[in-house]
User: What shape does this take?
Amino acid sequence: MARILIAGCGDVGTVLGKSLHAAGHQVWGLKRQPADLPPGIQPLAADLGDPATLSRLPSNLDYVVYCAAAASFSEAQYRAAYVAGVRNLLHALQEGEQQPRRLLFTSSTSVYAQHRGEPVDEGSPAEADGFSGRCIRAGEELLWNSPWPAVAVRFGGIYGPGRTRLIDSVREGTATCPIGSPLYTNRIHRDDCARVLEHVLSLTDPDPLYVAVDDEPAPLDEVLRWLAHQLGVAEPPPAPESPLKPGAGGGRDATARLRASKRCRNARLRASGFQFRYPSYREGYGALLRAESDDNKRV
Ligand SMILES: NC(=O)c1ccc[n+]([C@@H]2O[C@H](COP(=O)([O-])OP(=O)(O)OC[C@H]3O[C@@H](n4cnc5c(N)ncnc54)[C@H](OP(=O)(O)O)[C@@H]3O)[C@@H](O)[C@H]2O)c1
Assistant: This one.
């Protein structure tokens, strides 16, 4: 049985924590408002932005998973979540003379600036040109430069229960299909995110970095059309311009994020023995749509 701290225990962290608890581990979930954590994850009310609240971490931690997310899309919030929060937690671990066997960091494929559909893997340059990717890269470096072995897992766009923005946009008729060269998107189901983290925790000698996306980088228009067919609604019309209208908010960073087109490769993760429950958007969104339909039948 291991003692595991999940720092920033939200959507992904909670699925992970429940599974680790079911496997017999002792799990703490750290967040500012921990009342919503399910049984099995011991709540730890603390603010990663406030070092004073981190002075009472559980002792003798074996593993620490850092998966806090920024509260909003601003440089200040990204810096708080992925730089200051990481630094504060590392400091608290050192002050507590902890000797964790491994740290994990939930990073993002937004650290890659590639945007012309290039293949991307762990060896590709990760030179984000926006604040979001730069802050997350800084968080990775902090972990790798800590006194403990650390693994960063770069997730693609996470979707899953309650994270149905794309489905909703097709159903509501607000989605548009970008025209021109394919806009490749990379994603991973929320449950597979948690399974990847548990898998990496279980590896004897993991690499310091994994790209975690499903098997199929997919052009956005292909995904939108597939969803429209599943939903039985009209295909989204072609977009005359970029999917982001000028002035939609978020500035250059958001524009770069939405226009980003790259094909992330999960070969290293696959070679480590990981098997996806949802190997492409078809299985993942298919399961979400079936769950929706079952819910509707029950109402
Ligand atoms: N969304 C994506 O598509 C995507 C893609 C790649 C990577 N990621 C990364 O994947 C990880 C997991 O994401 P998720 O969807 O599980 O995020 P989430 O549901 O938003 O959970 C993040 C948790 O962090 C906690 N938190 C935030 N600030 C905190 C602070 N100052 N102190 C303590 N806790 C704090 C929040 O709880 P409280 O508010 O109660 O504190 C929240 O429950 C994140 O690191 C995210 O950046 C996400």
In short: Residues 87 and 142 are 7 Å apart (CA to CA).
